[in-house]
Amino acid sequence: MVTEAPFVAVDGVGRSFGEGPTRVVALAEVSVELRGGEFSVIVGASGSGKSTLLNLVGGMDRPSTGSIRVGETEIAALTDRELTRYRRERVGFVFQFYNLIQNLTARENVALAASLVMPGREADDVAGDLLERVGLGHRLDRFPRQLSGGEMQRVAIARALAKRPALLLCDEPSGALDSTTGTQVLAQLQETARTTDTAVVVVTHDRELGAAADRLIRLHDGRVVENRRNDRPATIGGKAGAG
Ligand SMILES: Nc1ncnc2c1ncn2[C@@H]1O[C@H](COP(=O)(O)OP(=O)(O)OP(=O)(O)O)[C@@H](O)[C@H]1O
Ligand SMILES: [Mg+2]
C-alpha cells in the first residue's frame, strides 16, 4: 500500500547540540519523505545522525532548524502537550533493548499500550490478536524473563502496533539478536508495512537490509548521501523481488 502524498515530510532539518567550540552538528539540511505502507530503512556509520533523525520524527526531540510535517501537522510547532499527545497516539517505538515491563505478561504489556487508545476490555482482545499476528499466540501469559530475545522483541512490536500508529519507528530493533532471530523480527516489520497503512522506519547496521527496503536512506556526517526507492524489494527471510 502506498499513499500518494508524502505522509512525513522532513524539510531542511538541522539539529545541533551545545554552543561554541563544543557544538556538535548531528544533522544538517536533511530532507526526506516517508510514506504510509512503506518500509523505509536508514543506514549510516555510528554517529551519522540516524537516531537523531528518528527522535525528531517521533517527537522525542525538536529540530534546531527546518520543518517536519506529519500529515497536516507541523510537529516542530506543537506545544509540549500537543507533542506528548502526538507521541502517545500516533507513534509506535521499537528500541534495541525491548523495554518491556518485567512484572507484566506479554499480553499485559501489549494491553497496557492498547489501553491508551481504547477501553480496557477491548485492549485485552486486541493484545491477544496482535501477539497472535507476531507468532506469539502461545506465549500470551509468559513474563518477559520467560521469553527469548526474539520473542521479547516481537512483544515490543505488538505493543508498538497496539495503538495502530501512523508511524512505527524502530532503532536497531535486531541489534541485540542473533542473525536468525533478527531476521524474523525484521521480516515482521516488513510484513507490517506491507499489510497496513503504517509507515515503518528501521534504523540498522545490517547492510543487507537495504535490498529489502522500499526506500533506502543513507546518512553520512548528518547529511543524506543516498535516498532511493526500490521498486522490487526483496522479501526478508524469503525470495527476492516479491511484493
Ligand atoms: N543529546 C545529545 N547531546 C550531544 N550530542 C549528541 C546528542 N545526541 C546525539 N549527539 C551527537 O550527534 C551525533 C549523531 O548521533 P546519533 O545518535 O544520531 O548517531 P547514530 O547514527 O544513531 O549512531 P549509532 O549508530 O552509534 O547509534 C553524534 O556525534 C552524537 O554524539
Ligand atoms: Mg543510534
UniProtKB/TrEMBL annotation:
Gene Ontology MF terms in the entry: ATP binding; ATP hydrolysis activity; transmembrane transporter activity
Name of this chain's protein: ABC transporter ATP-binding protein
SMART domains: AAA (SM00382)
SUPFAM superfamilies, alphabetized: P-loop containing nucleoside triphosphate hydrolases (SSF52540)
Pfam families assigned: ABC_tran (PF00005)
InterPro entries recorded: AAA+_ATPase, ABC_transporter-like_ATP-bd, ABC_transporter-like_CS, ABC_transpr_LolD-like, MacB-like_ATP-bd, P-loop_NTPase
GO cellular component, one term: plasma membrane
UniProtKB keywords: ATP-binding, Nucleotide-binding, Transport
Domain ABC transporter positions: 8-242
Transmembrane as UniProt keyword: no
KW Zinc (keyword) present: no
Species of origin: Rothia santali
